[in-house]
Amino acid sequence: MTSYGFASGLDHASIMETADRVAWTVDGVFGGRRFDASKPMVPTSWVGTEALAFLEAGDQLVLNHCRAFSYVHLLGNYEEFIPLHLGDAMEKSGHDDDLQPPSLVRFGQQERKHQALFRRAESVLEESCGHRFARYFDRDKTRVVELTTAILRRPLLSRFLILLALEWGTQRHYVESVKEPGAEALYVDVLKAHWIEEAQHTKWDTLEIARLAAESSIGELEDAFDHVLEIGQLIDATFAGQVESEIETLQRVSGRTFSDDEAVALRDALHRSMSAIVAGVGLTHPSFAKVARELSQQGAARVGIGR
Ligand SMILES: [Fe+2]
Ligand SMILES: [Fe+2]
């Protein structure tokens, strides 16, 4: 069995111990608070529209709130596939570690709690801002079921890899937002709570990646990255859909209309920043790059990770 340097020093018992120690509740995170809608909630760089001169200060603020909403809306829906994926991983594993099943059960329970955290954030954002936000994922769950089903068709290893990238991304989200001057306290606390538990998930993912990789051929390791790219394309389609929702919300709240050229420039800027903050931050995270390179230099190169 191959042992991977990136998994050295990790074990289920100590990860579980930390998970118990840092656990939180959704009520505890919110503490009855609302978001302060008089100021931006996420870093300006998360929106990426500063250079668009046709937007007024009020439009920029609405767009910032839209992006704060989009983040919790998208992540809450992306996390739907995780408990099913983890169930699949448990079923297909040899159970050579007794602590693997309870660890993955805990992991899945935490993701369900995160979905509740993000749903609460969606509704508190709407109350705090005094308006509704348009959503890409419908309440009947048609779109999230489609996305989840499509992701679950991919090999386990590629699913753990995309998950690892997204989870390392949540560290950057918290760190960037807390550094922003005048950061919105409740939004930072939501990101912080999420990252505190995601920190354990990155370790559990890493152990599962090492286990699956040890059973894979060189070709399978390389191919896993093609599947990562294809899952990335599925996720990119949700970025495009949620960007349309952001523009719809801005137009409804501000009463603005845009020329065709302005609409194109706005759509491009919002899509670029969405892709950078949700996908780019994870795929370029040094901890993800380290795992990717050790698995397959060729595969890592396909997702843009050099030697
Ligand atoms: Fe999560
Ligand atoms: Fe997670």
What does this structure look like?
By secondary structure, this protein is mainly alpha-helical. Helix content is 72%, strand content 0%. The protein has twelve helices and no strands. The site of one fe (ii) ion has 4 residues, from helix 8. The site of one fe (ii) ion (FE2) has 4 residues, from helix 8.
Oligomer: single chain
Q: Note the beta-strand portion.
A: under 5%
Please provide the ordered H/E string of secondary-structure elements.
Answer: HHHHHHHHHHHH
Poorly predicted runs of 5 or more residues: none
Helix content: over 70%
The rounded distance between the terminal residues' Cα atoms is 25 Å
Q: How many helical elements?
A: 12
Structural class: mainly alpha
Largest sheet: none
Total DSSP E strands: 0
Can you list the ligands bound to this structure? fe (ii) ion
Radius of gyration: 20 Å
Roughly what is the average pLDDT, rounded to an integer? 96
**Shape annotation:** globular
